[in-house]
Amino acid sequence: TFALVPNTGVMPLAGSTRDVVGPIARCVRDAALTLDVLAGFTAEDPKTVAGIGHRPKGGYTSGLDATALRGKRLGLYGPGWRDQPLSPDAASLYQRAIGELQARGATVVADPFAGSGFAAIARPVAGTDYDPRGMECIPYDMDRYLKRMGPHAALGSFEAFVTAVAAEDPFAPQGVLALMPALPAFNAGFADPLAPPDLSDFIAAREAYLAVFAEVMARHRLDALVFPQMRCELPPLTGLDVVQETSVCEINIAGLPGVTVPA
User: How many angstroms separate the CA atoms of 216 and 114, rounded?
Assistant: First the structure.
């Protein structure tokens, strides 16, 4: 969940709005153990105040139970969440995983977001599936991050960063962050990284996502959602193909938690 784990010290892309830090582990137990160490309030990251009072009694490992799926209701991926199909391989793996969940006592609910308007909230940049709202704060967050590194850091400001990467400009049309100039508030922040960015579009999107999410979860009496993380096979390491995921922007903008396990 956004603000559950401090991300102080992590170079920000959207540290004020979307960035999250969490464990990558071999199994659920290891992830829970690691999260028990990482999660919690620190004054160095004031937004972590949001997690106070929400950590489970006894820690995350206290919820580990081989019978935990019995009687649980799990929502499945469908066009109501994002109207993009799965590849045959991803669909096959997904069906296998659904069978495993049902074998452990879970009830699955097909496309619970159908008719909810959830999928229509997204505003991806033209030619992509990516909705960058909230990342308007890159210049502001990056500037604060670099200044916090102290006077002996190689780069001391966002302006110094821009100068250092000019030969491979990440914000240029072919750069890795080429979609950022599509956000008017990003351009304002680029011109003045000391000014807090206008995040009104992002806040409106977060509120809209959370309102629909809460209504759907309550209406279908869902305990969780279980989606394939990828819609199709990963592309080659080099080339123009991009990762085709199912939920990154939605849960990052909404600030919702996600746990990824191998299929």
Answer: 9
State whether residue 108 is helix, strand or coil: strand
Whole-model pTM: value is 0.92
Tokens 């209701």 correspond to 73
Residue 119 CA to residue 52 CA, distance in Å, equals: 31
3-state secondary structure 185-226: HHHHHHHCCCCCCCCHHHHHHHHHHHHHHHHHHHHCCCCEEE
Mean pLDDT per 10-residue section of the chain, whose length is 263 residues: 92 92 88 93 93 92 94 98 95 96 97 97 89 94 93 94 94 89 90 93 97 98 96 88 91 93 77
Residue 31, C-beta contacts closer than 8 angstroms, at least 6 positions apart: 22, 23, 25, 259
- The span from the CA of 90 to the CA of 35, in Å, is 28
Kindly list the distances between the CA atom of residue 123 and the CA atoms of 100, 129, 133, 208, 250, in Å, as whole numbers in the listed order.
34, 9, 8, 12, 10
Compute the distance between CA of residue 94 and CA of residue 117 in angstroms, rounded to an integer.
24
